Each structure stands twice: as C-alpha cells, then as structure tokens.
Amino acid sequence: MSSLPQRVAVLGATGSIGASALDVIARHPDRLRVSVLAAGSQVDALLALCAQHRPQHAVIADESGYARLRDGLRERGLDTRAHAGSTALDQLVAGDACDVVVAAIVGAAGLSSTLAAAHAGKRLLLANKESLVLAGELVIAAAHASGAEIIPVDSEHNAIFQCLRSCRAQGEVRRVVLTASGGPFRGRSRASLADVTPQQAVAHPKWSMGPKISVDSATLMNKGLELIEAHHLFGLSSDRLGVLVHPQSLVHSLVEYIDGSTLAQLGLPDMRTALAVGLGWPERIQSGVAGLDLLSHGRLDFEAPDLEAFPCLRLACEAMASGGTAPAVLNAANEVAVSAFLQGQISFLSIPALVEDALAALPATPASSLDALLAADLQARRLTESAIAGQAQRA
Ligand code: NAD
Ligand code: MG
C-alpha cells in the first residue's frame, strides 16, 4: 500500500453507498482523501459534494452535463477539474489520481470502471455486484494479474471476507451461507404480490438503499446476484453456497468450516461498517456505526427462502449453473425490467416473468471474452425492452 493519506476515487458518489463512503472518509483526514468523485447525471448533487470534499477531479458520466459541471466548479471557486463520459472516468480510475477505488455505480454501467481499477492494480472496494455477475471471471482474472486487492463492500460478502481470515486454505471451508432480510414482502404469497407498487417495493424494512437494489431485495433477485458474486469472489461452487432468510439483518453472513465451526459477522445494518473495513484494511478504523446491543434486539430468527413467491432467486441459481452468457442475460433483463417497474410500466410479477423469458430465448453460450458478454447483455436488453413495449401496446 502506498503512503498516507490514501487518495480515494468514489464512483457513484451521489448514491447511497457513495454517501456512506464519503461519511467514513471524512472521519479520517489523516489517512484518507477524496481525489475523484464521479456520478451518472446529477450535476447539482455532484457539485455540492465537490464543494464539501474538494477532490482533484469530478466526472459526470452523462456528457451533456459537462458544461454545467465545469461552470459550477468555477463559480464555486473550486480547483477541481471537470470531466465527462465513461472513457474519461476509466482513465482517471486507472491513472495516478487515486490509490483506492470505491466502485458504487449501479448496474452494468459500472463494469468498465471496475475493470479499469482491477487492471490497474488499485485497491478495489467493490459494491457494484452487477459487474461480477456480468463478467466475474474477467474482473477476478484482471485483479489477479495486476495484484489489485478486491475488498467486497456488499454487506454479506464483506462479512464472509472477514470470517475467511480465520483459515489458511479454501479447502478448510465447508460452506458459506448468505443471509437475506427477505425484503418488504417476506411471508407473502405469490398471488398477493400482483398489485404491489414501486413505493411499497422500495420501502426496505432494514436497509436504506438506492431504488434498483431495493427492488432487487423485494424480488430476492438481489440474493441471487449475490450468490453469483460470492461464487466469483471466493471461488466457491454453487453446492457450497446457501441462503438463509434472517429478518433482523444483524447476522450479515456465515462461514462453516470443516471442523464444525461456524463463524458469522454481526453488526447493525449500516453500510459504513463494510466500507470502513475496506478503507482501513488490514486495520480497523472508526465508521460512525454504534456497536451491537444484542439484549435490545432480543432474538435472531432464520427461515428458508420462499422460491415459489420469489422465483428470481431460483432463476439466478439456474443462470449460475448454466454459466457462460446466462448471468449476463439474467442481469440485463433484470435491469430493464426493474427500471420499467419503477416507472410504473409493468407489474412486480412481470419482473421474474421477463427475466425467465430472456433466459429461455437466449440460451447460454460459452463466454470467455468481454465482447461476447457485452453482446449477450445488449441482446437481453433489446429483447426485454421489446417485450415491455409489446405489453404496453396490448394493454
Ligand atoms: P444509488 O442508486 O443510490 O446510486 C447509484 C450511483 O451510481 C449514483 O451516484 C449515480 O449517479 C451513479 N450512476 C448511475 N449510472 C451511472 C453511470 N452510467 N455512470 C456513472 N455513474 C452512474 O445506488 P446504491 O444503492 O448506492 O448502489 C450502488 C451499487 O452498490 C449497486 O451495484 C448496488 O447493488 C450496490 N450495493 C448497494 C448497497 C446499499 O446499501 N445501497 C449494498 C450493497 C451493494
Ligand atoms: Mg448485500
């Protein structure tokens, strides 16, 4: 690791993970400094963050926002340099403006910068799970070749990352179990989910998150994406990965060892803990999160996931088993379907139906190249978009 303070690029700075990362970074001015801030299209929110954190560079992915970003920085008297577009972002991530990259862009849009950080040997705090679902082998291989250290900042994978520090070899692990809150519709039947609204779906009982992952949590697709994420991060086959619904969201995941020991990581549901683990590792640093008072919570419950009411988890397991382009198709169809659901164009139950249709229409083919994966992603997006347009015409 290079000398302190470490320069941190926060990608997806205006989002939920971005805010948590910036909160932790601001607590450690001696060891961490924000050097790059990047967002999708919210220029005003990005400008406000620049005024607060004074990075060297600010990037707006949407190129039409460039002039407003540049002028806004000037008006505020900031010497932050303005950039626009994904190529500019990839270059900043790979260049010497940062040592650490917080990859917290939502969706497949985050793949390119995740790969750039992995190729460039940066410490990669990976929240953008979609990049691993889409191209996990390529991301892991790139990190391996460059020596980039990936620290997962999805709470479950961060928990597993911590628990795995108590063994030497992967063969000592019997099984890894991801916990799931069950989302806002836990315990409900499939039929009762027909009319749920986007507002109900994003009202997560335990975590405060961006809209896309909140819907994924409500369908349980999030847990499916996380199984694929765990498969790539920890090199575990699907028969050594399980899911347990745990409504209190205090146990963030468990690792079972061959000697019968099970290690779990517990804590309040606040992403600043996982981010502090990544930002400080191998040291522990303050995150602003209080300790866990188990007496005040009283109990920890566990139950099996309901695959009948929440078929997205089953679809993700099937895509993981098929391999090749299947996870890319699953992810792309899901992104399009979730966005249409959030815009009120389709029903909640159409999400798994559209994903299932895409997987059936685009059977898995082997995918060793990025081009093949991106082609599958694009095909699945087009197919799902036209299925949604067809539904709208019939309605
Ligand atoms: P969010 O919607 O709150 O924020 C998304 C961020 O991505 C915003 O800053 C947005 O401007 C940016 N963005 C969108 N499209 C972009 C593009 N094309 N180029 C550059 N930036 C773009 O989402 P979030 O909840 O913070 O989630 C971010 C990622 O972290 C997702 O992959 C999610 O699955 C993962 N994650 C989130 C949580 C959580 O608690 N929120 C937990 C675990 C994992
Ligand atoms: Mg998670």
TrEMBL record:
It catalyses: 2-C-methyl-D-erythritol 4-phosphate + NADP(+) = 1-deoxy-D-xylulose 5-phosphate + NADPH + H(+). GO terms for biological process: isopentenyl diphosphate biosynthetic process, methylerythritol 4-phosphate pathway involved in terpenoid biosynthetic process. NADPH binds at T14, G15, S16, I17, G40, N128, E130, G210. Its cofactor is Mg(2+); Mn(2+). The keyword Metal-binding applies. Mn(2+) binds at D154, E156, E226. InterPro entries: DXP_reductoisomerase, DXP_reductoisomerase_C, DXP_reductoisomerase_N, DXPR_C, DXPR_C_sf, NAD(P)-bd_dom_sf. Keywords: Isomerase, Isoprene biosynthesis, Magnesium, Manganese, Metal-binding, NADP, Oxidoreductase. Residues 8-136 form the 1-deoxy-D-xylulose 5-phosphate reductoisomerase N-terminal domain. Pathway: Isoprenoid biosynthesis; isopentenyl diphosphate biosynthesis via DXP pathway; isopentenyl diphosphate from 1-deoxy-D-xylulose 5-phosphate: step 1/6. Coiled coil: none annotated. Residues 266-382 form the DXP reductoisomerase C-terminal domain. It is an enzyme of class 1 (oxidoreductase). Residues 150-234 form the 1-deoxy-D-xylulose 5-phosphate reductoisomerase C-terminal domain. 1-deoxy-D-xylulose 5-phosphate binds at K129, S155, E156, S181, H204, S217, N222, K223, E226. It holds the Pfam family DXPR_C. The keyword RNA-binding does not apply. GO terms for molecular function: 1-deoxy-D-xylulose-5-phosphate reductoisomerase activity; isomerase activity; manganese ion binding; NADPH binding. Its EC number is 1.1.1.267. It comes from the Bacteria. Belongs to the DXR family. This is 1-deoxy-D-xylulose 5-phosphate reductoisomerase. It comes from Pseudoxanthomonas indica. The gene is dxr.
